[in-house]
Amino acid sequence: MNFLTELREGLLISWSAIRANKLRSFLTTLGIIIGVVTVTLMGTAIEGLNRSFTDSLSTIGADVLFVDRFNWMNNSAQEWLEQRKRPPLTIANAQELRRSMTQAAAVAPVAMDNAPVKYKKNSASGVQIVGTTAEYQATAGITMAEGRFFSDAEGSGGRPVCVLGSDITTNLFQGASPLGEKIFVGNSSFTVIGVAEKQGGIGDSGADNNVIFPLPQFIASFWDNPDYDIQVKVQDLKHIDDAKEELRTVLRRSRHVSPNEPDNFSINQQEQFLEFFHKLTGTIGAVGLFVTGLSLFVGGIGIMNIMFVSVAERTREIGVRKAIGAKRRTILMQFLAEAACICLLGGVIALLIAWPVTLMMQRFMPATLSPLIAGGALFVSAATGVLSGFMPAWRAARMNPVDALRNE
Prior knowledge:
The protein is of the alpha+beta class. The chain has 2 domains: 3-56 and 275-406, no CATH class; 64-268, no CATH class. 57% of the residues lie in helices and 16% in strands. The chain contains 14 helices and 10 strands. The chain has a 6-stranded mixed β-barrel. Strand 2 and strand 3 form a beta hairpin. Helix 10 packs across helix 12. The radius of gyration is 32 Å and the shape is elongated.
């Protein structure tokens, strides 16, 4: 009898045993179902968040440097307090970078605030408003869905125009075209000249919920002395390190930093966010895997206990099979297959539960039940069954056929 024949025979016997004890088999799989549902939902949430976060950053691109007073990833409160003492960035700093940098494709000073936005009877509160120049379209990776971005002349002249993000457009205009319409931001009115394509992101604070204005209009209408940051898009990603050093040199000269003093600004890149985010999701995943491991361990103990009971109940059957020539590996494979089938059944039930739950999760957060996660869940189920059933199967395989046949 070859291996494939033994495997097929073992699976048929295992399936018959499971069908003969439906309730016991189902109750045995409950621990596995809970564990697999947990690991599946955790995996869908983490993968969805990773994709959403990565897609959101990829719209900007890895070739953008962000100059700020603060380092995005401070290691302590003391570092943040020290950086708070730095002098603010200025429009003059941005203008000097634009004039002097040879490796910059675009330089945009950016100021941000929050304000309520109204259109007729529709309104939205806590909307992020952005004051910047025309080059912000390049540094922020904005593609227009409708209309256009404001021009250099409009940006420097401070005309009362604005560009809306995708989400705020949907909320205010509910499917109607906003082009040429006037919205009220705070107490000032602005004409909508464009709508940006959806960029994606997490929550309501992303670029899709922005309203973008020419910087002079932002200063005149909202904040006369804002805290700027500066976005610099480099010409060639291959030379981003050279561009970073050139930016540092020009900015130190512009801010009158002496050679023996440290930088009084920070140059940030999106990789810092990605590295931090992946560490965060890795920590969450590790905690989730620990909780899931406990659930699978309890479920595995239940599988092992039931398999010991099954071996004891079928001792005479084992003796008969060994007496007519069944090898140890055949008996071992039979009971391992039975344990794996019980756990796989639990894994399938868990996926049938996790799939509609994932669809509900997608209403509140990004979540993706990918084939890789589903396959991983089934593999974990089968592996749990094999590990839990090995000791009972090994005991069955090593039975003496004479002693087994004496069993009543």
